Amino acid sequence: xxxxxxxxxxxxxxxxxxxxxxxxxxxxxxxxxxxxxxxxxxxxxxxxxxxxxxxxxxxxxxxxxxxxxxxxxxxxxxxxxxxxxxxxxxxxxxxxxxxxxxxxxxxxxxxxxxxxxxxx
Amino acid sequence: xxxxxxxxxxxxxxxxxxxxxxxxxxxxxxxxxxxxxxxxxxxxxxxxxxxxxxxxxxxxxxxxxxxxxxxxxxxxxxxxxxxxxxxxxxxxxxxxxxxxxxxxxxxxxxxxxxxxxxxxxxxxxxxxxxxxxxxxxxxxxxxxxxxxxxxxxxxxxxxxxxxxxxxxxxxxxxxxxxxxxxx
Lengths: 120, 183
Prior knowledge:
The complex is a heterodimer of chains A (120) and B (183).
Chain A: H1 3-28, E1 33-38, E2 41-46, E3 51-56, E4 61-67, E5 70-76, H2 82-86, E6 95-98, E7 103-107
Antiparallel strand pairs in A: 1-2, 1-7, 3-4, 4-5, 6-7
Chain B: H1 20-43, H2 59-68, H3 71-89, H4 95-117, H5 123-146, H6 155-182
Helix pairs in contact in B: 1-2, 1-3, 2-3, 2-4, 2-6, 3-4, 4-5, 5-6
């Protein structure tokens, strides 16, 4: 490695270290949220605070529980109860759907979907 | 630390003494090497702590091309590699290949600038800086595609890791290029 090499690498590393707190500050404001949409419209609740929500579905009420940074449907009177068996979701873009009740619980906002693919 | 004599590196970029047909043959061979390295790497799992980061071994071929034959052949190797590996893995024209192309173009531009305009820089820093540029371009494009800046938190630590991986890849390319030149 030449002296120029070390200088170039050090400068880029320094830029990255300076940018780090700036990036965290700008992105920190967009914390994850839970979007619950049902036949009666859409509710957005924070993922960070634990709570339980009763949502009116098309055939029954659902109970959605936010706990420790993840969400699950804990109660629903639909035929298959697929939504309850889906379990807890926590990553942006994850979805729990209750089709008979026409309720979708999703993590993230309008534009917060993560990629399925990996970056190469 | 001065470089040992077997790794002595000629700062001039490009080699005018090669005949056109030798340039085409050697460029094609490097493109083939880049594709094989890219395909092998595509099949490997990502780094456990950061699945979106990769070693970028295919860049060895691009750096060698840049060191021995100059920017034009390096561009053919780099862009050709993205197209062929994209075709082979079925990701061509999908979001992954948009990211790959943006990264490759940014990386190539930065490496070419260093090779051309910074006399003391060796392939180690070309590759390290190119790797950092690759990561920055990918985060930029990914954020634009997703319409959110939340991904950018991951960019600075990724750049730091990319510098290390890129420097390692550049060192491998430096060793290979010096052997190729002497052989």
